[in-house]
Predict the structure.
Amino acid sequence: MPVITKNFTIETQGHSQILDITKQVKSQILNISISSGIAVVFIPGSTAGITSIEYESGVMQDLAAAIERLAPKSIHYNHDARWGDGNGYAHVRAALIGASFTIPLQDKQLLLGTWQQIVLIDFDNRPRTRKVILQLIGE
Amino acid sequence: MPVITKNFTIETQGHSQILDITKQVKSQILNISISSGIAVVFIPGSTAGITSIEYESGVMQDLAAAIERLAPKSIHYNHDARWGDGNGYAHVRAALIGASFTIPLQDKQLLLGTWQQIVLIDFDNRPRTRKVILQLIGE
Amino acid sequence: MPVITKNFTIETQGHSQILDITKQVKSQILNISISSGIAVVFIPGSTAGITSIEYESGVMQDLAAAIERLAPKSIHYNHDARWGDGNGYAHVRAALIGASFTIPLQDKQLLLGTWQQIVLIDFDNRPRTRKVILQLIGE
């Protein structure tokens, strides 16, 4: 049973932009020797997260508003006081959402729901080029 | 090392009902050819989540209250304004909790704590029949 | 492809102490027969969680403050009313953060970002000796 490591890069605008990466993830599993197993979608770094959602503009605004309530930009962050990065809220948001998301794979298909997309949320306070890692294990 | 995909269905009441699915998950691993590895508990769909908790009625009420603070039902949701579903809060809650939960399996036992149960939280605004997927990889 | 189960114990102060366990996790994968695959970091129990963050004292304070907003210590918890444990908030926090974190492993290296550490957060209201499980699958 092989292990296959894939990755792709994606340009983000930061500022808690939510990007649908389902297509990119699916394109990585088209021509591999694993048909069933798991796909771990992982974002290296401490200012972005991975989850799933119905990727629809209304929900995106609603999720952004919830994240803003959870770790508002406008409050004091000790990280910023120490380092002057101005992205203390991004670190907190990323830790709460999580950097890893594991999806079952069966017969070359990710077992996502019909309205369930994989999203990368870039919480940083500037545009970034992000590398997303896809770890595939199976048979 | 095989990959085994199992699933079971469960009737929910929606409205952020928290269901203990530990027994159902355990029953799926009784007679399989994998004794050690991982079990990925995954909910397809965008209005439910999976996590673990001490399944006790006091804690259930406390978790429900925390989720209500996180994404209150009574505020405006753009999803509802666009689609009229009335379940905008469910999408936001599901994205924050996450659809996937991975548990180590050793000698046919899930390595959960004594007071740690696997729960499905159905955030949708109506009863649902949910299919839970269990992806098992190991030896 | 083998499955390897490791664990280590760590003394915590509880009270939402955030501990960097990256070194302990890395030390477990030094001399094993798996070089590529996944590492599942799992905390058995219902009052602690695992995630990743830039482990820097400012961010630690900021994350602690966000967790306090999410499930404040000072409000009423039904768990405490029923059981008198006084750690109702700990159960809620743990369920929201999650007990499991999966990291890709390639050529004996965890594919974490440069500033991304694995953390255990012990939400309980007293010092604990925690056992962290590391489930490794790969080749």
About this structure: Chain C touches chain B at residues 1-3, 5, 38, 40, 42-46, 70-71, 77-83, 88-89, 91-92, 94-96, 98-100, 102, 133, 135, 137 (CB under 8 Å).
